[in-house]
Design goal:
By secondary structure, this protein is an all-alpha fold. The chain has one domain: Amino acid/polyamine transporter I. The protein contains 20 helices and no strands.
C-alpha cells in the first residue's frame, strides 16, 4: 500500500504566527517612511484619522469574513467564499483575480527592494549599486524562505517585524519624551482637520497600507485550532495596523509641529521620517532605519510569497491549475513547486522591466502593484456581498450582525474606497492617463477571463468544474465546521435565495 503524498504541516501556526505573516505583508516601516508623507501632504495634520477610518472599515469587513471562515474551511479563502455565495463562474473569476492580484503585489515589490537597497547603500556607504542584480538576489532569498517550513518563515518574519516596528516606536518615544516641536496635541483628530477635501486622498493611501491583511484564512490548514486562531489573527492584524499607523503618523506630525509638517513633507517626502528620527533619537537611528527598510521589504515579499504558494496549492488541488503545483515537499511540507513557478515568473517580469530600462520604483513597483492592490480590494467587496448570500442558504448559529449588517455595511464602504482609489489612481502610479486607464482595466479584464474559463470548464471538464470549492461535508473534508451541507452554488435560482427548510 503506497503512502499518501505529503501535505501541509497542520497544527503549526498560532495566532501570533499568522498575524506576523499578515502584518509583515503590509510592511509597516516601508508604508510609514515611504508613503505616509504623501498622506500628510494630502490631508494635512488630519492624516492619522484616515488610517483609523480605513482600519474601522476593514474591521467591519472582518466580522462577516471571519464568520464565514468558520463554515467554509480550506485554503481557498476569497474564491471559496465567493463561490459559495455567488456561484462558480464568479468564484473562478475571483480565483484568477486573486492569483494575479497577489502576484502583482509581490512582483512589484521586487522593484522596491532594488530601489530601497540602492538608496541604503548610497546613503550609508556611498556605493552606487545596480538595482536589477539586487532584485534577482532577493528573488532567490525569498524563494528559499518559502521553500523552508512554514514555522521557519513565521520565526523569521517575527524577528524582522519586531525590528521594523521597534524603530518606529523608538522614533515615537523620542518625540513623546522631548514633547515635539510645539508641544503635544490631539488636533489631528479634530473634525475640522479630518473633514477636509484632502481626506479623500488620505483614505486612498490608507487603504493601500492594509494590503495583505485578509490572507489570514489562507493559513487555515496549518493553524492550531483554526476556527479561533484565524479569527483572532485577523482582528489582531487590523487592530494593530490601524492604531499603529495612526499613532506613528501622529507622532511624526508632533515632531515637526502642525504648522511646519506639511511643508516639510512636500519639500522632502522621502527624508521626512529620517529627519525626524535624526533630530529626536540620533543619526545612528536614521542609519538603522535605512537598513530596516530593506529587511521590511524582504519580510513583505516572504509573506506574499507564502500566501501565493498556498493559493496556487489550493487551485492545483481544485484542478484549475496543473496538479504539479500542488506537490508538497516531503521534509519541509511546503508547496515547493508552486514556489519555483512563482519565482521563475517573478524573475521574467523583473528582468523584462530591467532590460527595458524601467525605473524600479516608479514603474516596476507602482505600475505592477496598483492593479494588484485594486484587484484584492475588489475581492474583498465580492466577499462582503457573498457573505449574506451564503448564510441565507444554510442553517447556522451566527447572528444577523455577523451575517447581514456587518457585511452589507462593509460592502458599501469598500465600494466607496475602491472608487476613491480609482479616482485618485495617479497618486499611486504617477503615470499618464493612458497608462492609468490600462492599469485600471486589468482588474475587470482578468476577472472576465476567469469567468470565461469557468464557462469553458463547465463544458469541457465538468468534473473539475463540479469539484471547484465543493461542499466539504459532501467531499469528506475533515476540516468542516458545519454539519449542514451547502446547496450547490450553480443550482441557485437567484443570487441570494431564501434558506432551504430545515
Amino acid at each position: 500500500m503506497s503512502k499518501p503524498p505529503p501535505g501541509l504541516r497542520t497544527g503549526t501556526l498560532g495566532t501570533a504566527d499568522i498575524a506576523f505573516f499578515v502584518i509583515s505583508a503590509a510592511a509597516p516601516l516601508t508604508v510609514m517612511a515611504g508613503v505616509a508623507p504623501i498622506a500628510i501632504m494630502l490631508g494635512g495634520i488630519g492624516a492619522p484619522a484616515g488610517y483609523l477610518l480605513a482600519g474601522i472599515t476593514l474591521a467591519i469587513f472582518a466580522v462577516g469574513f471571519t464568520a464565514m471562515s468558520r463554515h467554509v474551511p480550506g485554503g481557498g479563502a476569497f474564491y471559496a467564499y465567493i463561490t459559495r455565495g455567488l456561484g462558480r463562474p464568479v468564484g473562478i473569476g475571483a480565483a484568477l483575480l486573486a492569483m494575479v492580484g497577489y502576484l502583482g503585489m509581490a512582483t512589484g515589490i521586487y522593484g522596491l527592494l532594488g530601489s530601497a537597497t540602492v538608496e541604503t547603500a548610497h546613503a550609508l556607504w556611498g556605493l552606487d549599486l545596480p538595482w536589477l542584480p539586487v532584485s534577482l538576489i532577493g528573488l532567490l532569498l525569498v524563494w528559499y524562505g518559502g521553500f523552508r517550513s512554514i514555522d521557519f518563515g513565521a520565526k523569521l518574519l517575527g524577528v524582522l517585524l519586531i525590528a521594523e516596528t521597534g524603530i518606529l516606536l523608538l522614533l515615537a518615544a523620542g518625540v513623546l519624551i522631548d514633547g515635539g516641536a510645539d508641544g503635544l496635541g490631539l488636533d489631528s483628530f479634530a473634525p475640522a482637520n479630518v473633514l477636509v477635501p484632502g481626506t479623500v486622498g488620505v483614505l486612498a493611501v490608507a487603504f493601500a497600507a492594509f494590503t495583505g491583511f485578509e490572507s489570514t484564512v489562507i493559513y487555515r490548514r496549518e493553524a492550531r485550532d483554526p476556527g479561533r486562531t484565524v479569527t483572532r489573527a485577523t482582528y489582531a492584524a487590523v487592530a494593530f495596523l490601524g492604531t499603529f499607523y495612526a499613532f506613528v503618523v501622529w507622532a511624526v506630525i508632533q515632531a515637526f509641529g502642525d504648522e511646519a509638517v506639511v511643508k516639510a513633507a512636500a519639500d522632502d517626502p522621502a527624508g521626512l521620517f529620517f529627519s525626524a528620527i535624526t533630530t529626536y533619537v540620533g543619526a545612528w537611528a536614521a542609519d538603522l532605519m535605512h537598513i530596516l527598510i530593506v529587511t521590511s521589504v524582504l519580510a513583505s515579499l516572504l509573506a506574499f510569497h507564502n500566501a501565493i504558494n498556498r493559493y496556487g496549492l489550493a487551485l492545483a488541488e481544485e484542478g484549475v491549475l496543473p496538479r504539479a503545483l500542488g506537490r508538497v515537499h516531503p521534509r519541509h511540507r511546503s508547496p515547493y513547486l508552486a514556489g519555483v513557478a512563482q519565482t521563475v515568473l517573478g524573475a521574467v517580469v523583473v528582468l523584462g522591466f530591467g532590460l527595458a530600462g524601467a525605473d524600479p520604483y516608479a514603474q516596476l513597483l507602482l505600475w505592477v502593484n496598483t492593479p494588484g492592490m485594486i484587484g484584492l480590494m475588489a475581492l474583498m467587496l465580492l466577499t462582503a456581498i457573498a457573505v449574506p448570500c451564503y448564510f441565507r442558504t444554510v442553517r447556522h448559529g451566527e447572528g444577523r450582525l455577523r451575517t447581514v449588517v456587518a457585511p452589507v455595511t462593509a460592502a458599501v464602504l469598500l465600494a466607496v474606497a475602491i472608487y476613491l482609489i480609482a479616482s485618485r489612481v495617479e497618486l499611486f502610479t504617477g503615470a499618464s492617463p493612458l497608462v492609468n486607464t490600462v492599469l485600471l482595466s486589468l482588474v475587470p479584464i482578468v476577472f472576465a477571463i476567469g469567468v470565461g474559463l469557468a464557462l469553458r470548464l463547465r463544458r469541457s471538464r465538468p468534473e473539475v468544474y463540479a469539484r471547484f470549492a465543493a461542499d466539504p461535508v459532501r467531499s469528506g473534508d475533515p476540516e468542516a465546521d458545519d454539519t449542514t451541507p451547502d446547496p450547490d452554488p450553480d443550482k441557485r435560482s437567484e443570487p441570494c435565495p431564501q434558506p432551504t427548510p430545515s
